[in-house]
């Protein structure tokens, strides 16, 4: 055990997406391991900190920025996005309109924020409320993989803050891409150069994380 | 916890307030300073809702617009806004008895008030920060009265705060920061060094008039003063909180980084938010309307240089009850038109 040789990473992650898709719930589940139907609507921005023991030598601190979903707060996103290293874009699987807004959020993000190496920040798409049984994706995983490729997401997950499904997995996926893009600034992980997976297991629903 | 006001004092205050409310125009015209002093001491809970309506001018507004709310209440509203409002109904003071049940009276009235506003000002629509404001009002008055009080807040006290571009709140962020330079140079320097934009910590404070930030008894005392003296009170509360959180090198020791600083501003010390302390500090802080207006002009000029013209034109801000009553004098009974037949 060489505690003193531990590396520490600090990343600012954004959680964005339309109003009421469950951004706050996802963060509370991830950070405090609980769920409540009584969260207040986020006005402006809120924050939370999650510490991950990434591996034996690495500790990762994640600053999660919970950003108000109402469109008019988009006038402030430039300030909220500053110096972020990654993003979750969330939609609600029971409301198609929130999925349609995903590309709008992605464009907003990419137009206001790039990594120091000039590349867009890694973003993971979260299809939240998958416990509700009303899935507008209709289990159409191939289409989602395609969507992620076309829109520059490094992966996607069906999540449920209520039932604690896939949130840790989604976060590991995002962090992995951030570390990769940091340690190898020239050849960062890009979704469009990843070959389609041939025999990935059914549980893994992240299109780009099949290596793990 | 509520500050203990002896019952006798409370009864005395109630009778003083009753006298004021029954002769409001006279008091407003001649003894405004006395009203201000009494608002600073705290409006008796039993008369608070009524007093807020008198102070804000919403009572006059309602009388001038009899039936308007009922008319708006009957309309369906734009589905675009209804959808957003409905998503927010159970997310306002979720543990308050009035708003706890889905579809209960509190949530129903909140829906009616917010929907009516989108019909009253379709170009503004609905902003999420209006919901906590409307909820606090509904805790003190019926829906129609709460609606007109909300109108006064959105148009007179905080014009432009909730409109599409959110320009007014961003401007006020800059004004707050600039005022902080004088109030607490240490806090100002720290926030500058950490590159913490004011909108990162003041958006919810100002847009919700601290209703989601302070302990409840302090919220009520701040609102009593805000209705009387206007936005100056909101600025002062913000400045007091900043000064007592980041205003000395000792306090800054535990928030060296940007994130730590923001965390500190989000989880404020209960001591500085305590009713008696906070109110006293706010009353004593020498930040005037004139300073705010001067700073407003400076920041507006800077805004125009960097962002261009403001996209949402708002009416000028009125600094409290006196300014509102002067801008919109109560109609005098004697001057009401007498029905006449023209031959």
Automatic annotation (TrEMBL), chain A:
Its main location: membrane. GO terms for cellular component: early endosome; late endosome; lysosome; melanosome membrane; mitochondria-associated endoplasmic reticulum membrane contact site; mitochondrion; phagocytic vesicle; trans-Golgi network. CDD domains: Rab32_Rab38 (cd04107). InterPro entries: P-loop_NTPase, Rab29/Rab38/Rab32, Small_GTP-bd, Small_GTPase. One of its GO terms (biological process) is mitochondrion organization. Keywords: GTP-binding, Lipoprotein, Membrane, Nucleotide-binding, Prenylation. One of its GO terms (molecular function) is GTP-dependent protein binding. NCBIfam families: small_GTP. This is Ras-related protein Rab.
From TrEMBL, chain B:
SUPFAM superfamilies: Ypt/Rab-GAP domain of gyp1p. One of its GO terms (cellular component) is plasma membrane. Keywords: GTPase activation. Residues 42-230 form the Rab-GAP TBC domain. Pfam families: RabGAP-TBC (PF00566). InterPro entries: Rab-GAP-TBC_dom (IPR000195), Rab-GAP_TBC_sf (IPR035969), Rab_GAP_TBC_domain (IPR050302). This is TB10A protein. The gene is Tbc1d10a.
